[in-house]
Design brief:
There is one protein chain. 26% of the residues lie in helices and 24% in strands. It is of the alpha+beta class. A hairpin with a 2-residue loop joins strand 2 and strand 3.
């Protein structure tokens, strides 16, 4: 699959989620040439954001993601999905699939103003401190990464961060978009899985296996694929 085709598939998936009412907002994705037949695919933010130097995600970083449309999909409960990848021709050589649960409980009806939706970031920021505290729902974000350029001791080529960014749990195979999104919806939005399942291939197509022998003896993640 080329970078352009992958970008279009992501856009189709996001548009489907918005049309079916399981997303509050979506971003388009852009395939950009990097030279030497390399391409990047990323979501198009509404403006450039300034990253705060924090080790891990916090409420202010979450709100900044909302302000800048720094996501692929903003799900109905405020959860964010970010999808990015780099291609060498038709092969994904780096990828980052990130799921950020919303840290604040709310109902969609609370955002509805006539036929419009009040911006979630404004709704959260305007909550009185006592109510914000009562609505806080701390859940760990996680992201699957294929990162061969930084592979080394303590940094597996394929890994998943759960909670702290310092955690890198080895994954035997590189995670693909289909497997990641199925994982998200099957485990966190099971009622919505039938809505998106037809757009996702399962079992996942061929994925490169890349796990070192030492990591294979550690607790790690794996899954079966078609060959």
């Amino acid at each position: 699959m080329s970078a352009t085709t992958f970008s279009r598939c992501l856009d189709d998936f996001c548009a489907h989620c918005l049309q079916e009412g399981i997303a509050l907002n979506i971003s388009s994705h852009v395939a950009r040439p990097l030279g030497n037949n390399h391409f990047s695919v990323n979501w198009a933010t509404s403006r450039v954001r300034t990253y705060r130097r924090v080790n891990d995600l916090d409420l202010q970083e979450y709100l900044e993601c909302l302000r800048c449309n720094d996501f692929s999909i903003l799900l109905m409960d405020g959860g964010l999905i970010q999808v990015s990848a780099q291609f060498d021709g038709s092969e994904i050589i780096e990828s980052r699939f990130y799921y950020i649960p919303c840290p604040v409980r709310f109902e969609k009806s609370e955002l509805e103003v006539g036929e419009e939706l009040y911006p979630l970031e404004d709704f959260i920021e305007e909550l009185p401190s006592a109510e914000l505290k009562a609505r806080l729902c701390i859940r760990a974000p996680f992201r699957f990464e294929l990162d061969p350029r930084n592979a080394g001791d303590g940094h597996p080529t394929n890994h998943v961060h759960i909670g702290p960014s310092s955690s890198r749990i080895p994954v035997a195979l590189s995670m693909c978009w289909n497997s990641f999104s199925r994982f998200i919806f099957k485990n966190f939005y099971p009622d919505q899985l039938p809505v998106v399942e037809g757009l996702l291939k399962h079992p996942a197509p061929y994925r490169v296996r890349a796990i070192t022998e030492p990591d294979a003896y550690e607790l790690h993640m794996t899954f079966a694929v078609d060959t």
